[in-house]
Design a protein that fits this description.
Length: 192
């Protein structure tokens, strides 16, 4: 045999004051739709409203939670503090990662294996100075109109004359020659 007992339980549910006006006169309701129900609360004083999706037959507790999520100042402070803790933790992770990379780069520089931009810049400056000296030397040795032999790729040899002074082109000392298209690295030039 089965016996049924019905109990009526009454309990108080915390409903936060309206965050906009501070009123305690808040109505918690749902729209009652069976397919897509929305619930929450509305302040009767200032008409501030908060809603979110909820069950088909939501409890007052569920509706109060929806309202409190956006109006309970202590809960909002706790949520912001959680965000701060998460952000602080992420910042510490990123700082540690940054330090790890800087330490690794410093170790590579000490062993000569790193991509040291300062050293690369100094090497490029030295190469440019060397190239400029080579251009100056070439222009002194082979003024415009000087007969020269140009050794091209594949062993081809062309007798020509210098048609314009040499200069640095894309980091390489280059010159122009009569009857030959384009400029050529001055290392290909031999006196005729």
């Amino acid at each position: 045999m089965k016996v049924t007992e019905t109990k009526k339980v009454t309990r108080e549910i915390h409903v936060a004051s309206c965050i906009k006006c501070g009123s305690d006169d808040v109505q918690i309701t749902d729209c009652g739709y069976s397919s897509f129900n929305m619930g929450g609360g509305t302040c009767k004083s200032c008409k501030h409203s908060v809603s979110d999706s909820c069950d088909i037959s939501p409890s007052k507790d569920e509706l109060a939670r929806i309202w409190n999520k956006k109006n309970d100042i202590k809960a909002l402070i706790a949520a912001q503090q959680k965000k701060i803790e998460t952000a602080t933790s992420k910042i510490e992770e990123l700082k540690a990662l940054d330090q790890k990379y800087r330490d690794a780069k410093a170790g590579l520089k000490r062993t000569g294996q790193g991509f040291d931009l300062d050293a690369r810049s100094k090497r490029m400056q030295a190469l440019n100075k060397k190239g400029e000296r080579a251009v100056g030397d070439f222009n002194s040795a082979f003024p415009v109109g000087s007969p020269v032999t140009l050794e091209l790729d594949g062993g081809h040899v062309v007798d020509t004359t210098v048609s314009a002074p040499a200069q640095m082109m894309c980091g390489h000392p280059s010159a122009w020659f009569s009857g030959v298209s384009g400029s050529y690295h001055i290392g290909c030039v031999r006196p005729k």
